[in-house]
Amino acid sequence: MSTPSRPDGAQPPADQPNPPATPDEPAPSTSEPTAPPEPTPAEPTPAEPTPAEPTPAEPSPADVAADAPAEQPVEQPVEQPVEQPGDLAAASPDQPTAAAPAGSGGGLRSLLPVLALALVTVLLLLTGYLGWQAWQQSRTEAAREDALEAARTAGRVLFSYDHEQLDEDFEAGLAVATGTFREQYERTTRDVVRPVAEQYDTVVAADVVEAGVVSAQPERVVAVVYINQTTTSTRIEGPRIDQSRVRMSLRLVDGEWLVDEVRAL
Q1: Which of 210, 216, 208 is closest to 251 using CA atoms?
Q2: 20-43: buried (b, 16+ CB within 10 Å) or exposed (e) per residue?
Q3: CA 117 – CA 208 distance, rounded (Å)
Q4: What's the CATH code, domain 134-264?
Q5: CA gyration radius for the chain?
Q6: 0.70 cut: is pTM over it?
Q7: What Cα–Cα distance (Å) separates residue 156 from each residue in 82, 205, 223?
Q8: Interhelix angle for 179-188 vs 166-175, to 10°?
């Protein structure tokens, strides 16, 4: 392809790019002056991206938390590892080992005398209690036998009298009685029994048929006494036998079993 010449015969400048031929347009005639060709716009080259200025971003909660003064960490108790016998054996002889906690071995040895003393004390108390129980049991058995014999005697004395020896009989009755019962017996024999016995020449003989213990303690026994009374007097013909049963309570007073209550059953 030929390059069109200018009318004055001068060559186009070297830095002026030649216009590309367009297939749809006819080549200009050399005989007519032509206007200088329009410069073809250069293809735009991709521009380097200009970094955008960073805009201040809103602070996130994480940034705010990071900027806040850090809280002091709370110290947690650290559990001390328990040394096993194997660890102590594997320790180096040059390495100082931790001292045994106070009261582990020596404390147990110091407690041995205390434990032994406590054991001896318990044994002594138990032995004493068992001995006291045996002693109480023996006292109860002795009280049962002695009080039962005293109840038999009291049954004969308290319910027997003779108009010819009332003073002696009533004194014998007072000797086996105690407490309020003694007062009642004295008042009854004086105010009721004596006048009737003297008037009708009464004689009453009491015979204890049977007696038994209801309850027994070392110092108190309750017994039941079965009594047959044979009565003679001037107002009845022949002897009369009356059967009675009384509940008698006896109490140990100065080593002697005395009656402190009598109730008819």
Answers
A1: 216
A2: eeeeeeeeeeeeeeeeeeeeeeee
A3: 57
A4: 3.10.450.230
A5: 69
A6: no
A7: 86, 8, 14
A8: 170
Does 15 score more than 60 pLDDT? no
Q: Dihedrals φ, ψ of 244, to 5°?
A: -140, 160
Question: Is residue 159 helix, strand or coil?
Answer: coil
Contact call for residues 250 and 259 (beta carbons, < 8 A): yes
Closest Cα partner for 144 from 222, 253, 248?
222
Q: From edge to edge, which strands make up the β-sheet containing 161-162?
A: 161-162, 203-217, 220-232, 240-253, 256-264
- Give the pLDDT score at 71: 52
The DSSP string of 213-231 is EEEEETTEEEEEEEEEEEE
Tens-digit pLDDT profile for residues 119-156: 888 988 888 888 888 888 888 999 999 999 999 999 99
Give percent helix, percent strand, percent coil of the chain, each to the nearest 5.
Answer: 35, 20, 45
Distance CA 250, CA 221 (A): 5
Rounded CA-CA distance 90/85 in Å is 9
Q: How many helices (H) and strands (E) does the chain have?
A: 6, 5
Would you list the domain boundaries of the chain?
Answer: 134-264
Distance of CA 116 to the CA centre of its chain: 27
